[in-house]
Amino acid sequence: MDSTAQRAPRPTGRTIAYDPSSAASPLHVRAAAVLEAGWTGTSTVPSRGLYPHQWSWDSAFIAIGLRHVSPLRAQTELETLLAAQWADGRIPHIVFNPSVPLDAYFPSPDFWRSSTAGHAAGAPRTVQTSGIVQPPVHALAAWLVHLADPGLSRARGFLARAYPRLAAWHRYLLHRRDLGGGGLVSVVHPWEQGMDNSPCWDRPLSRVTPAPARSFRRADLDHGSPEDRPTDLDYGRYVRLAADYRDRGYADGPGDFSVEDPAFNALLIASEHALARIAGELGAAGSARQDRAERLTAALVERLWEPSAGMFLCRDVRAGELIPERGVSGLVPLLLPTLPRDLAAMLVRTVCGPHFGLGGTTRLVPSYDLLGDAFDPHRYWRGPAWFNTNWLLERGLRLHGERGRADALRKGILHTAGASDFAEYVDPYTGQACGATGFGWTAALTLDLLHDRPAWDRNGVTAIKGEDRG
Fold it and tell me: Which residues form the Mannosylglycerate hydrolase MGH1-like glycoside hydrolase domain (predicted)?
């Protein structure tokens, strides 16, 4: 569908009525229309204007929602992304659409130079990509997409074709990105973690000399308010890190920015559990992956849990210390089925306490500590609430028996998504839309939350462990 496709109608400001059992509910129709408008024929763009290519973890979340509209399209979404995998196993964070003008997004393909700078790492020759990665939600998405229509999935050989690519992706992360030597994966750029300008990155980023402002042009400011976006100083540091990584031929190793992040590793663990289920579906043993997921959970607790904060913190690998900032990333491990119960209980207290305010001062969980010096309710990942992290926390609450809180968060997500015209992110206090509207994963995760919750619990994160603790 071209860029002139009709957008979903703008909100009226009234409370959105929805029927979770009906695919014809107004909110379902509007959310499906957003995904239809972003569909390119092989994948879905997060936003036609601001993000006109395919993004890695966006596509995983989008596939989770698309499975309720078209399981075939959901499978195709993931297959298109996996087809751009590098020979070393990495799944790039952007797959570029060659029909989009170079100046529509920066950094563009001519910045990344994947086919030349990434040659030694096995970048594909037939498609241009970035050279960094994003959180590994993909195996979890593939398993949930399979469950939406197992007959279609088996007839197309969906899991049989996806499994070796997903396994190679996990091997890359576990073998090439254990930069701290403690068993966890490190990210080498804030864009890899996905929460681009979180205050959690300020300390390690301060070591990075920014690229000169005249050396790049920020296309994102053509589509969003500068007050909602990362600063020019931060952006200059992002460009420097990416250029240095590119100029090393995308070879992995400790650098100025090497961080072990709780959300990135928690999503890898959740996807390891999913790979075990996929292996079982394909007639192979999944016990080794279950064991690995449990070892990774233990490493996560050992290296990143901070009792005094009541949550997980990021670790600056180069400095060898935890970063004393509370970001939503440190709450995401709540979605892990083998997380010790006392830690899960403490995370619930933290998410509902004064630092994040769920059920009290905030409508949705903010991306950063409400009491932090760097908190800003509108600036990208420095305070606004995002729908993907709230979707993950809804699942974590439900998984660990907090059904009342999960139901309340679900209701808040659905109302805020509809009232904000499926905004990219929102003010956590007021729900005011920030960034792009008609945003892909917001619409997709709205669709997922509109569908039968008990069935998701049986077949989603809880079912990965074969138990229902909700």
Answer: 51-442
**HEC per residue, 164-209:** HHHHHHHHHHHHHCCCCCCCCCEECCHHHHCCCCCHHHHHHHCCCC
Q: Domain 35-389, what architecture?
A: Alpha/alpha barrel (1.50)
CA 376 to CA 368: how far, in whole Å?
8
Residues 263, 195: contact at Cβ < 8 Å?
yes
Count of other CB atoms within 10 angstroms of residue 107: 18
Query: In terms of residues, how long is the chain?
Result: 470
SS3 278: helix
Catalytic residue from among 79, 149, 192, 196: 196
Is-contact 266 173, C-beta < 8 A?
Answer: no
Q: CA dihedral in degrees (191, 192, 193, 198; nearest 10)?
A: -20
d(CA 320, CA 324): 13
User: What ranges do the domains of the chain cover?
Assistant: 35-389
Catalytic residue among 220, 260, 424, 457: 424
Query: What is the C-alpha to C-alpha distance for residues 92 and 337, in angstroms, rounded to an integer?
Result: 28
Our answer to whether residue 196 is catalytic in this structure is yes
Structure tokens, 272: 């390891």
